[in-house]
Design a protein that fits this description.
Structural class: alpha+beta
Distance between the termini: 43 Å
Oligomer: single chain
CATH class of the largest domain: Alpha Beta
Order of helices and strands: EEEEEEHHHEHHEHHEH
Strand order of the largest sheet: 5-2-1-4-3-6
Radius of gyration: 28 Å
CATH topology of the largest domain: GIY-YIG endonuclease
Length: 254
């Protein structure tokens, strides 16, 4: 395949064809940077093709933003179906469903020569925050040599940093309350550990694994209704396109 159809988040119900540059392997679901109206934007590969449409000037994909596809095949098909059903531009649907751009995406394009230093990429980026980390805690034998006296809270925090090597202040606050920052500052003042502030990407799902949703089992009345409707739809009998479900509120019709 030499070309790709890319969905770009613009109010147009169509995709745009681009040439795959040498050395770049793409598949549906990948997020790519492409030239569009004298700027570069983030778009989504929705299909591969052998030939470009006739009479169309085709530009090349500027670069790959993420190694893995943003959307697996089944999710991409679902979002495409949703866009068709609701008569909404597929590019805008995919942008709404996609996670934000990774922080290093634009830097990666600049290093590869796909994006000039003064160019930016239109698209949402992952928000960053400044986080304080405690690290490089001294060993217990050093504490003994220095005859350092520590309170119970100081000793608990120091032991955790010794064990883990590095711990974020946000985690220490969850474990030891809002006074953790003051305790860390006191330990730093005694040269028992090092505090370092740096930027990290926000991850609302960090430590919260998300399992794939499983449809709930149907009770007998629901199963009976589903089977009757499925039979009618498969038979395509006249007048079989509409169904009336009878049941009180809360009986499971939805």
């Amino acid at each position: 395949m030499s070309f790709v159809d890319v969905a770009i988040p613009v109010p147009l119900r169509r995709t745009f064809t681009y040439k795959i540059p040498p050395g770049l392997t793409l598949q549906p679901g990948h997020r790519v940077a492409v030239p569009f109206h004298r700027r570069k934007v983030a778009g989504f590969v929705v299909a591969l093709r052998d030939e470009a449409p006739e009479g169309v000037r085709v530009l090349s994909v500027a670069g790959l933003l993420e190694e893995e596809p943003v959307f697996p095949a089944d999710l991409l098909a679902f979002l495409d179906e949703a866009a068709r059903y609701y008569l909404h531009p597929i590019g805008e649907v995919l942008r709404a469903a996609a996670p934000a751009l990774p922080k290093g995406a634009m830097q990666k394009l600049r290093e590869g020569g796909f994006l000039d230093d003064d160019e930016s990429l239109r698209g949402r980026s992952v928000a960053t925050i400044k986080e304080l980390f405690a690290k490089d805690a001294v060993r217990d034998d050093v504490l003994h040599e220095r005859s350092v006296r520590l309170g119970a809270r100081q000793r608990a925090l120091l032991a955790l940093v010794q064990e883990r090597g590095e711990v974020a202040l946000s985690e220490l606050r969850e474990l030891h309350g809002p006074s953790a920052r003051g305790t860390l500052r006191a330990l730093e003042k005694k040269s028992l550990l090092v505090l370092e502030e740096r930027e990290v990407q926000r991850d609302p799902f960090l430590g919260r694994p998300v399992e794939r949703d499983v449809p709930p089992p149907l009770h007998p009345a629901q199963q009976f209704a589903v089977e009757r409707m499925t039979e009618a739809l498969h038979a395509r009998t006249p007048g079989g396109s509409g169904f009336l479900l009878h049941g009180v509120t809360g009986s499971g019709k939805t």
